[in-house]
Amino acid sequence: MADGSIWPADTAAPKTLTDIAYARLRADIIGGRHPADAKLRVEHLRRDYGLGATPLREALSRLTSEGFVVTVGQRGFRVAPVSVEDLDDITDMRITLELKALRQSLERGDDAWESRVVAAYYQLSKAETGEEFDFAAWEERNRAFHETLISACASPWLMRFHAILYDQHKRYRNISLQTAAPVPRDVHQEHQRIYQAALARDADTLCTETQSHIRRTADITRAVLLVR
């Protein structure tokens, strides 16, 4: 039976000051509060986050290992730069891992997994078809839907690396949302096709629809990067 837990250890609830610093910095980098190439001066971060230098440095080192931060010289840090080449690499790797995880989930997913998929899609549909669109609610439910689909995957390492790539992709998507006009797109219909293929246990269609869904997002983001 598949475990209902879908989050890697790094995204668990913060327990130490380093965990708190890591979670807050990570969210702010992904969300765009700290833009690409921005300097991350520990003395400024201490003031902004109300945390000490040691947990902040440890958090920045963890974020460096995930590719969200790069080191400058001996002790400095910057937000990782963005590029079309990097976006393409992240997209390709996310697709590779996600499709593998989807096939494993379809093979291993039991009735409990299927019930979680139904519930996640229902919540996502409410966010996408409601009268007033709440982006924060949609963001949370969109992630839950995609993560639930692969939650029966047998490989914790695959799940862990996929979670990092998902957030790297999300960082790029947020850049495009902040700097460009919305592109007409029926995301709900895309999710509906993914959902229907999952319930039908049609692995080939599920993978085709998921790959198209991810690449549409990447194509929109790439167009924004090319005119920056």
UniProtKB/TrEMBL annotation:
Species this chain originates from: Thiohalocapsa marina
Pfam families the record matches: FCD (PF07729), GntR (PF00392)
UniProt cross-references to InterPro entries, sorted A to Z: GntR_C, TF_FadR/GntR_C, Tscrpt_reg_HTH_GntR, WH-like_DNA-bd_sf, WH_DNA-bd_sf
Protein name according to UniProt: FCD domain-containing protein
UniProt KW NADP keyword: no
Domain of life: Bacteria
Domain HTH gntR-type, first and last residues per copy: 15-82
Gene3D superfamilies, A to Z: GntR ligand-binding domain-like (1.20.120.530), Winged helix-like DNA-binding domain superfamily/Winged helix DNA-binding domain (1.10.10.10)
Record key words, sorted: DNA-binding, Transcription, Transcription regulation
An annotated Gene Ontology molecular function: DNA binding
